Amino acid sequence: MLQDKEANAAELERTFIAIKPDGVQRGLIAEIISRFERKGFKLVGIKLVVPNKEFAQKHYDDLKERPFFNGLCDFLSSGPVVAMVWEGEGVIKYGRKLIGATDPQKSEPGTIRGDLAVVVGRNIIHGSDGPETAKDEISLWFEPSELVSYSSNAEKWIYGEN
Ligand code: IDP
Ligand code: MG
């Protein structure tokens, strides 16, 4: 795999995905990463971080009026989170499909939350819900220098060559 700053410059769709503290504590990091990886999406940024509460509040700013906001921010800042950026055609929307519905009781079997979680307050994973959110969340969690553009030999087998 060669690092290539120009790789796929025209078709870079990226999304922010986080394995929340419950997913990390339950030993689900590899399981979750493998679902994105096997699909054919490309990991371009990853780090383990413990966000503080102020950072969690920024991340969930759009939910600040909701009754569960405070507990949610306490929870997100309660331990290590795996912060990631994944790249690929349709990755924002399809990433949400891989994740499943917000409430694991309503997530289909075969989805991450459907297979691996039970209640909405411990649904193990976050994924950006649209292009604007993806852009904002990636820049909240990552410096540009922490994201790596590269081409992989698998791409021609995932996308075809013409
Ligand atoms: P999403 O994670 O599927 O995008 P959002 O509506 O953006 O769902 O909510 C963010 C997170 O807030 C959820 O993943 C879940 O952890 C938590 N949450 C959402 N609704 C509830 C609720 O009714 N009770 C407790 N926590 C909730
Ligand atoms: Mg959301």
Description of the molecule:
The chain has 162 residues and is α+β, with helices and mostly antiparallel strands. Helices cover 38% and strands 17% of the residues. The protein is built from 8 helices and 6 strands. The strands form 2 sheets. Strands 3-4-2-5 form a 4-stranded antiparallel beta sheet. The chain has a two-stranded antiparallel ribbon with strand order 1-6. Helix 3 packs across helix 4 (69-76). The radius of gyration is 16 Å and the shape is globular. The model is unreliable at 1-10 (pLDDT under 50). Residues 63, 68, 72, 102, 120-121, 123, 126, 129 line the site of inosine-5'-diphosphate.
Shape: globular
Roughly what is the average pLDDT, rounded to an integer?
94
Characterize the biggest β-sheet: 4 strands, antiparallel
Strand order of the largest sheet: 3-4-2-5
Number of helices: 8
Number of strands: 6
> Can you list the ligands bound to this structure?
inosine-5'-diphosphate, magnesium ion
Helices and strands: which structural class?
alpha+beta
Tell me the helix content.
25-40%
GO molecular function, one term: ATP binding
Active site: 126 (pros-phosphohistidine intermediate)
Catalytic activity: a ribonucleoside 5'-diphosphate + ATP = a ribonucleoside 5'-triphosphate + ADP; a 2'-deoxyribonucleoside 5'-diphosphate + ATP = a 2'-deoxyribonucleoside 5'-triphosphate + ADP
Subcellular location: Plastid, Chloroplast thylakoid lumen
